[in-house]
Design goal:
With 326 residues, this protein is of the alpha/beta class. The chain is built from 16 helices and six strands. It has one domain. A hairpin with a 2-residue loop joins β1 and β2. It starts with a helix and ends with a strand.
Length: 326
């Protein structure tokens, strides 16, 4: 998610190094796993397509699925999309760059949003072995143990998903969102946020601290991102296979977690409910208020597919959807 990579660069030092280098893991999948992946994707509504146009009366919505991380292939995509998107009346992002900048200024003076400010620290709430494993993984991402011990578990869970090589790449966050932001700024097109960062953090922090610690320990192995996963995600994104990205993450997470399928699926459902289902529902309340305009709605590609996805919800709301060139 764009906010987490933004926070990573805000809170921790980076160094100019080569971009992440890895391999696409999908060709290496065993035949049985590949069949399970394809079967899961086949059951999902709107599994592909990074650019859809939703029409209802005089309202035209360009739904753009984005990837929040850098990929040089995006430059050609922007060149193809620009002539059409330049005509938009407004751009809607998860969070606009202007709101990100305002949040950055607040965070510079107050880190309580991601810190445990009173009571026990994570060292007190975890076994020694669990803490040692977690602190080692976080150190690889530039987060020292003394700081990690006082950070909120939901934040650390998501930080683990960011590959260490990405933390070290100053260009890492120049993804599709940032490029579309530049396009809107260049053309003087108004921008709007679909959510407030403060509301998003409150949602993540809604579970008791002990429950967050339990999930952090259970998922720490499954959530650790690496260069191969980043390359796999980027390739699938450029192929416009956003449902495959999520289902691949589910299958690989189960394998790496060491949990039973039942235990892992319970954690996954909670993650899915917060990161996708609930946020999509909140965004739709704003999107459906857009009338008689042509707008661009640019959000993470993982928000497009499935029953709870924006595309399926727009269809149910009476919009006519057409897949467009990307």
């Amino acid at each position: 998610m764009r906010l987490l990579t933004f926070l990573a660069f805000l809170l921790f030092p980076i160094s100019a190094q080569a971009a992440c280098e890895g391999v696409d893991l999908r060709p290496q999948l065993p035949e049985e796993t590949r069949a399970r992946l394809q079967s899961a994707v086949a059951e999902i509504a709107y599994p592909e397509g990074n650019h859809w146009i939703a029409r209802k009366g005089d309202t035209v919505l360009h739904i753009i699925g984005t990837l929040h991380t850098f990929d040089p292939r995006m430059e050609e995509v922007i060149d193809r999309l620009s002539p059409e998107l330049n005509k938009a009346d407004a751009f809607y992002f998860e969070v606009t760059q202007e709101d990100m900048n305002a949040f950055e200024q607040n965070m510079a003076n107050d880190l309580t949003a991601v810190m445990i400010t009173s009571g026990p620290t994570l060292i007190d709430l975890m076994t020694e072995d669990d803490w040692d494993a977690l602190s080692t993984a976080l150190a690889q991402r530039g987060i020292p143990g003394w700081m990690a011990a006082k950070m909120r578990p939901w934040f650390l869970t998501m930080m683990l998903s960011i590959p260490p090589c990405m933390i070290q790449d100053p260009n890492a966050t120049y993804g599709m969102d940032a490029r579309l932001n530049d396009l809107a700024v260049e053309k003087g097109i108004p921008q709007h946020s679909l959510e407030r960062i403060e509301d998003l953090m409150a949602m993540f922090d809604s579970h008791p601290l002990e429950k967050q610690v339990e999930s952090l320990v259970r998922l720490s192995g499954a959530m650790q991102g690496n260069a191969d996963q980043l390359v796999t995600m980027a390739n699938a994104y450029m192929e416009e296979k956003h449902a495959e990205i999520i289902q691949f993450a589910h299958l690989q997470g189960l394998e790496q977690s060491g949990l039973s399928p039942e235990a892992f699926d319970a954690e996954w459902r909670n993650f899915e409910q917060q990161m996708l289902v609930q946020r999509n529902a909140n965004w739709m309340a704003q999107i459906l208020d857009i009338r008689d305009q042509t707008v661009v709605i640019a959000v993470g590609a993982g928000h497009l597919s499935d029953d709870y996805g924006l595309l399926n919800q727009l269809e149910k709301a009476g919009y006519v959807l057409t897949r467009a060139a990307f």
